[in-house]
What does this fold into?
Amino acid sequence: MSSADPINANPTVLDASQLPTRHESKNATIQSQSLDRQEELNYYNQLYEFSLFNSELITKQRSYDDLTLPKIESDETIASISTGFEDITLRSKQPSQTGSNNNDNNCEEQEPIDAQEIYDLISTISDPEHPLTLGQLAVVNLNDIEVSNNSNHSQLSEIIIYITPTITHCSLATLIGLGIKVRLERCLPKRFRVTILLKEGSHQSENQVNKQLNDKERVSAACENEQLLKVIGHMFATCQ
Amino acid sequence: MSLDVKSMINQYMVATDPNSSEATSSVKTLVHQIENKQLSLLNFIKLLGDYLTDDSNTIRPKSLSLLSSTLDSIEFDKLQAKEVDVLVSFYSSKMEDPQCTMETLKGINALVSMKMFRPSSLKVILNDLKEKYESRGQLASTRYFAFLILQSIMEAKLEYCQTNLNDLFVETFLHVAKNEKDPKNLMISFKLNKAISDNFNVDKFSEDMFDSVYCYFPISFRAPENDPYKITGDQLKQALRDCLSAKSIYAKDSIPNLIEKLASTSPTVKLDVLKSLNQCIENYDTKTIEEYWISLWNSLKFEILHKEIASAEDLAALIKYYEEGDNESERVIPITWNIFQSMSNKYTDPKEQEGVRDYLILIVDELSKYLKDSEDTKSRQSAVIMASICSANVNSFNLLIAKVMKLLITPINDPEQAFTIKKQRMLLSNISFMLDAYYKLFNTDGLFVEHNNPIFEYKDIILTMVNQSLLATSNVEVTLRCLAIKIIGKLFTLKSFLTAEERQLLVQTLSEVLLEDDNVNTFKQALSSLNSISKDHPSIVLQYTIPKLLTLLPDNDLNQAEDLNKHITNEKVFDILSSISENILIINSLIIRLLNKLSTVLQSNGSQRYARELLLTISNILNKLNHKESTNDNLRKFVPRLLSLIFENVIFNESSVIYEDPIALEFTARSLKKIITEADLSLHQDTLDNFYKVLVSGETTNVILSNALVKPISVLKSNFILFSLFTAILGSVDKFVIFPTLSRDFVDSLVSVLDIETTLSERQATIQTLSLVVNKWFKSDNKEDSEYLEKMFVSLSSQVESKSTTLSQKLKSLELIAWINKSLLLKGDPLSDKYRSYLVSLLDNPDMSLLVPKCLAIAIADAPCFEQFKKAGPFGKSTTFNINVRPLYKQKFFDTLLPVLTKKFKETNGDDKTYLTTLSLILNHVNKEIVIPHLNEILPLILSSLSVNSNLTVSSSLSILKIAIIESPHLIERQMNSLVPKLLELLSITNMDNEDVKIKSLQCLIAMSNFQLHLVVPFRTLIINKLESVLDDKSRSVRRLACDCREVYYELGQPKAE
It folds into this structure.
């Protein structure tokens, strides 16, 4: 396909390492996990793994009165270590007390769906014309994704994505848009409304394409087309 | 006798198939009789006589076939010259019999290989072939014999043909080869063609010879499925190429024709053309190539110049990328480079070959406009072309490199145009290609580097540019800076390129980048370059990088938190230090310096964490020692200093930040372990004795201490915390060293320590020490040892079961049983059966059933004290030297335990979860290979355990389930109906913190999508719909996997994309 179109044959290609990732987007400088903390945790985990003197198990489960517990260090870390063993027996009986502090914190810590997550979902779609992904071709860009995630999950949330075709007369802009639409429909919960727009001035027939992409009827009609779905399926082959 | 022969002949004549056993056996008998002179050839032919002249078109060929087969099988020296002559003229006359061509050719082929065959007959035969034989209308197998005759002649009478029958032979070949289409015949035809080009004078026939093969070009043959000849298209293509490139005189036809074919739109053809061209250029002589140089260059250059070149800074990487490219149009690129290299290779003699020299310079001149402007779209392509040409041979390199470099650096001094960052980047990447050419010639090919190598003139400029990129540009220019760092790495690899001063300069620059630049990519790149440099040039790194890094570590870190401007944390420094410790010189010097730092930090009251970090870093750096390096010196010099410092702070100085700190001791123990296990085994006895003296016997001065202790130490009485060090030492010394005291007495003392109230870490270290002593110093064949353990078992088990003992006492006894069991199991002691069975029997004891699963899991869990270290033993096999361990103990344990568990599980109708819990705990510790043979038995348990309300059990079951899905799908296929809803149910639980379970369930679902389509399709809609709620999961990784899983099921049955 591309050979017919010499201008589009050589688009600027970004290297995969140049694409934005979650790691960078958090604006972290060099991230080094605290190695000593990890090792410390491992050490205590191992202690519990190899010892029968697991305080939680004994106290909570059977409350033996005559038990003299070994002296436990005052260090908080020990108390907060989850051994993973206690839940075998405890969950059913005392669900409220199980799970250590550490894990409870993790539970509450939601990881909301954000622009980077959307970007990760769609930037890996391959371009129908080139053996490259939409991210590499800068058809989708992290900055061109707007997410308003409603914390109340019963209400609608909205995503707007601006795509930039590689050339202004790209005949496949609609196909790319449709691909993104289908991908997000498959990968996002129903509460999200997805709008896909061409970036202003990036295409000759901008309005037409925008209209086509966000017309529910036309999109679902397109999804009835077996042939089209097959092409889209091929575009998704690089997504995992 | 003649009757006998007659019957043999008749037997052959009536056989329908000449390959049948009757036919071949009669041939064999006849051959035998002729070879033994029992039957003369004359008689044989006489007896055949009538048949040979029979009018029937079936009898005549058949009888001839008998004759030919017989001749074919007769030893080559059994026939008289006269007999051969007669037969030659006989066959010659038969050439006119079109029904008999095949048999005739076969017979002639047999004759030409005879010893007594007279070369003078060749003329007749060749003439017959040329005049009377007509390939058209003959079967492929018949035509094959015509080629075979020529081949046999060449093998037997090459010299005679060369001198007497040159033209006739070539003409005959051309006649025979005409119109051939069969692949097998073509192969032999091509081979003959090449052999003729090599051996005969074909000047007169060059065009015909060329045409006779070129008419097949390009070959698009693809072997059929059941091809009997096993000839591939590639073999044919290669044979054809061999013909074309055989002689320089073909150039006048081949090169123009091939160039013309280059215009083909099919990449396969193009690839074939380029490969053929390359081979021609390689084989033709220099004069010929010179003649076609211009037209070759003009038609080939666009293959590169008009292509986009992938983004790599390395010529080798580029070539690899393209050769592994999916589509053939990409593979055109490296083969074109090869052609340029072959052309450049023609420049073998700078003095004589002025023509080639001029042409090479012409290429540079033509590309100069691109090379000069690094921003030009064809600049990169031109640089790659020049790099290929320069890398081909040193003459071209010497001739061109200076010219190319001069052109490349034009932008630097261009007063009219600004030297932009982009230009700088492109320029550097072009220079990088030129360095690859240097690498190829002087490193890969190992050529000697002359001190006046022309590239040295440009070395300063390269170094300045690299330095400038790193020291004078903004940190934002990540690509440029990474590129510059990569080039530094490359420069270090080049043979005899950098001087010592230049190396120092570059390492300084790199160190600066490492500390100043906070971009992740730049940092990574700098670290990896420095890492590889430190392998070969440790002294420079030691001299420049390490002191710089160490000054960043404060003596006291307490005020550091406020210092927000400091962008390089201690952790990062430690990271860098561990990562560049690639050489024993660096390692040995670093651990000493870090130990000094630790001592200062402890004196000036740094934080506990800082002290721990230092100890951890020391152990991490030591772990980078490879197994060839000896740690004997460290044992002598480093260990005493380390121990004195640690004892002082952990045991005696109550105000120290690491006073009685188990973590600091754990990190220290790791260092000791590494040093001891890597030291010579001969030092182990002394090491153990010395440690025993200090830790147990209370010596205050010893060679393992650099300073005398203020007070004696005794692990058995008060300093229990030091057991973690003692375990590490016991676990690392050679198992053949002698224990300093009676091991049974020592175990007694340990048991009494275990009765004292201690911290959990002290208790664990003590019990592990005990377990190690039993494993290493109790002998299975020693009666007293066995009796001791028997007695211990009785007393422990009675304590567990007794009603009067406290729970704490029961726990202690049970724990001891678990650990003794472990140590016995590892060495395969017969007593371990007793311990194990006892533990299993406790599973039914309601008081203990909660704890026993863990005891059984401890048995096969990988405990750090039982870590195995290996040394090369006898017969070159590496053996574990530090503990007694049977190789398959886990498997044995699992195999004996599994039937018991499944049986008991069935007896309780699956109500008692103890067995499931035990199984899942054990499964966590065994390898896939051990589980797979038992999948059939385990699976029912696994499936029912999915309903157990415990994340741990479910998660462990899911791991096994995933293995089952992949390894033996047939077991799972039957369960799909219950399994899929079960997995989906697990995924729908929202309140629990069960990310791990969800991820594993999704992985199982994804793995199932590989089942046969008809099995999974019924669940497709269900899975897709049910997973929708998972798309809103709290955890990002669960959501991601759910997307992937849905995608897999959406695309179910679609052909997988390549």
Remarks:
- The beta strands of chain B are 870-872, 878-880.
- The two ends of chain B are 71 Å apart (CA to CA).
